[in-house]
Fold this sequence. Notes:
- One of its GO terms (biological process) is proteolysis.
- Broad specificity carboxypetidase that releases amino acids sequentially from the C-terminus, including neutral, aromatic, polar and basic residues.
- Its EC number is 3.4.17.19.
- Zn(2+) binds at residues 269, 273, 299.
- By secondary structure, the chain is mainly alpha-helical.
- It has two domains: 3-127; 198-350 and 421-503, Orthogonal Bundle (Neurolysin, domain 3).
- The protein is 62% helix and 3% strand.
- It has 21 helices and three strands.
- The protein has helices at 3-34, 41-59, 62-70, 83-98, 103-126, 133-150, 157-162, 171-194, 210-224, 260-279, 295-309, 313-326, 328-331, 336-343, 360-376, 384-396, 422-442, 445-450, 455-464, 474-482, 489-503; strands spanning 231-235, 241-245, 248-253.
- Strands 1-3-2 form a three-stranded mixed beta sheet, sandwiched between helices.
- It is globular.
Amino acid sequence: MSDQAKAYTKLVEHLKGLGLLRSCASVLGWDEQTNLPPKGAEHRANQLALLAGLSHDRATDPVIGELLDQLADPNSVGGDQTAAYANVRNAKRAYDRSVKLPKKLVEELSRTTTLSQHAWVEARQKKDFTLFHPWLEKIVTLKREEADALGSETGVKYDALIEDYEPGATAAQIQSVFAPLREALVELVSAIKESDKKPDISILERKYPVETQKAFSIEAATAIGFDFQAGRLDVAAHPFCSGFGPGDCRLTTRYDEHHFPGAFFGTLHEAGHGIYEQGLNDNDFGLATGEACSLGIHESQSRMWENLVGRSRAFWDHFYGKAQQAFPDAIGDVHIDDFYSAVNDVRPSWIRVEADEVTYNLHIMLRFQLEQALLCGDLNAADVPAVWNETFTEFFGMTPSDDSIGCLQDVHWSAGLIGYFPTYSLGNMYASQFFEKAQDDLGDLNAMFAKGEFMPLKEWLNNNIHIHGRRYDAPQLVEVVTGKPLTAEPLLKHLRGKFGAVYGL
Length: 505
């Protein structure tokens, strides 16, 4: 075995060990959100801070730097197009970022975000931002320190943090994509408002027993390809998906017996994330080729199954009879046309995760705007509720009555995930472009869905997206899969076509 081959083998061993250590922290994080007693928060924060420090030690071990130096020449691992070089390239990027971060900062961020998430849950329940305000101040301060330590080519703090979620992206690039998208969405929303057609959403507010919702959601998630032998579904304050590694992927949702879409589409959304996690190469766990490409690509999978599939007429052509059997008192007398229109109702709403396909991206743009201002110092944590309400009114024409449906609705800031939000809208664009290509390759997907045939799409995603892991950056992956750079046109084509039909535009 050559010296380079030995170096690569040693690097792989080191990275897989780091992956295992981080997955242990992920299990504790999942348990914190689903099962941890309130009085255990302080101890859990210390546990997670310890693991964060140990992971940082391993991630910044000088041995990794030495191995990466030995493998700097792409030819040492067979060339720059190989999976091995993708692992080296991504390991180098991660190592260079990690060594810039002081261990003390890494531990403090872990400890603070663990405690702040518990404060956020209480603040949201009590509709009282003042309970969360001091934690948000601490988090923003720590994230500014992190951004300063990492630095960015543009000198913009926000860009330093985006790199963790969408490598290579910048706030300016994202804004250049969002601006025309927002203009087109505002125009579409305006046309929909003027339509005489108004779906009867009270259908969705009838009584849907929680246990039946759970069973029906699991049936649908199973049908689209989520493997419950390698995963499970639990309840959390905010829905999420945690992939711990091969054979263990956890989904969470939340239920309201008088709001059917929340849990059902939330479960489909998280199942989409889970199908991606379950589609990664088990043998490459801990390596770039066994990790998701980016958060935007990850969100493309969840948004695709939630909206392009789950809210399609073809999906309900197959599932509506089952839904009527499951919820006879709620929709036994409701025609499928009325139900389909209700689950595709477009109107300004308070909660992002329950927003329709058209206005959803406006929710993201609001958060994108505010968190940039927070990070650069143009917005103080204390002023978040007022500025949120002012911006929300500007975007949606209505003002939140309390902070639980305003600035306290998302878990992201309490978890320190500043820079994450833009990936949702990027994911919507990726999803539409991928779906369009899948339709070209597979034929009439809607005809398949109407017959309950979801595996052709799931396997196409496995073979064209999941299999690559992080071999390509997101923009490269889009071109490899679709032959075109990312564009908002497939998303706008889908929205105009679908909602033009629903609202008779």
